[in-house]
Amino acid sequence: MKYPAPLLLSLLLLSRLAVSGQSPWTAEKANAWYQQQGWLVGANFIPSTAVNQLEMWQAATFDTTTISRELGYAQATGFNIMRVYLHHVAWQQDRAGFKRRVGQYLDIAARHHIRTMFVFFDDCWRDAYQPGPQPTPIPGVHNSGWLKDPGGLIDQDTTLMDTLRVYVQDIIRTFKQDQRVVIWDLYNEPGHFKHGAKSWPLLKNVVAWARAEQPVQPLTIGIWNKEFTDFNQYQLEQSDIITFHNYRDSTSMQEAIDTLQRYNKPLICSEYMKRPNNSTFATHLPMMKKARVGAINWGLVAGKTQTNYPQGNKGGEPEPAIWYHDVFRASGAPFDTQETGLIRELVDQ
C-alpha cells in the first residue's frame, strides 16, 4: 500500500520511536532494578582542589591523586555512590581527552567500590564561564566559583543546542552499558536562579537525547521546589527513578518521602544535609534507611567550593563552628566523628 508522503514520514518517525524504546521505565522495571542496588548512600563529590566543574575535568587540573584519596575517605565511611557534575565546555575543548578522564575517574571510584551518578546540566550559580584557568575562590564564600551549564549562553548562541545534543549523546553512548555509572541525572534544578520557563526547551531536549541512546542505567531529573508544579509533573513523568532535594528539617523530609512514594518508584534524595536547618545525618539518615530511600548529601570534603560556609554570606568570616555542608577536612579528619560513625553503623546494619 502506498501512503502520502507526510503520512509516510509520520509512520517512519513513529516506527523509529517504537524501536528506540524511549518510554520511561515502568514501576515494575524500576523497582526490579532498585532491588539489585542495595541501599545507595553517598555524597555530591568534587575534589577539594577544584573550585568548579571545569577545574575538576580539564586536563591541566584533573587531580587523580586527590580524587583517589578523598574517595578513600568516602569508602571508609561506607559511602557507595557519588553524584558528580560534568560540564560541556570540558568536553568541547577535548572530546577524547574528556571521555578518557571520565573513564579514569570511574576507574578510581570503582577501586573504592563507589559507583557514580553523573549530572549533565545545572541552572545554579555563576552564569559566565570560559575554558582554561579558573578563578580562585573568594575567601569564605559558598560556591564562589560553581558554574551553570549552559546558563544564559543558550539564549545567545543559536548553535549551542545542537552542540549540547552531540555532547549528551556522545557521553551516554560511551558509558551507557558501563556498570560503574549507576544513574544519569539529566538536569539539576531546572528553572532555578530565575531561569524559570527558559529552561523548558533544554529540559525536554535532554530527555529525548538521552532516551534515544537507550542506556541500561535509569534516567532522572530531581524534584527540588514543590512550587514548580509544571516542572515537577514533567520531571516525575520522565524519570525512570525518582530523585529529589530536601534541605529542611525531618518533618519536611518525611512529607517529601510520603508524597513521592505514592508514585511507586524507587526514591533517592540526591541533595540533603544542611546542618543549620536541622537537616543532619542524625535526623535524616535513619529515616531514609527505614523508608528504603537512597541518601546523597551535599559535599564530601571541604575545599575550594567552600560549601562548609553558609550560602549567601559575604566572605571574610572565620570558618563556621557548625559547618553548612561537607563531611571531611582535606586531611581526612571528619568534621564530626559521631556523624561518620553513624553513617558507617547504618550502612553496616
Structure notes:
With 349 residues, this protein is an alpha/beta fold. It has helices at 5-20, 27-35, 53-57, 64-77, 88-93, 95-111, 153-156, 160-175, 200-212, 229-238, 250-260, 281-290, 337-348; strands spanning 41-44, 81-85, 115-122, 181-188, 219-220, 242-245, 267-271, 294-297. The longest helix is centred in the first third of the chain and has 17 residues, at 95-111. The N and C termini lie far apart (64 Å). Residues 1-20 form the signal peptide.
Fill in the keyword field for this structure.
Cellulase family glycosylhydrolase; GH; signal; TIM Barrel; Glyco_hydro_5
Question: Quick one: CATH class?
Answer: Alpha Beta
Which fold name is given in CATH as the topology? TIM Barrel
**Overall geometric form:** globular
* CATH architectural grouping: Alpha-Beta Barrel
The helix tally amounts to 13
SS content category: alpha/beta
How many individual domains? 1
What helical percentage do the residues reach? 40-55%
**Biggest β-sheet description:** 8 strands, parallel
Rg estimate, integer Å: 20 Å
InterPro entries: GH (IPR017853), Glyco_hydro_5 (IPR001547)
Signal peptide: 1-20
Protein name: Cellulase family glycosylhydrolase
Organism: Chitinophaga qingshengii
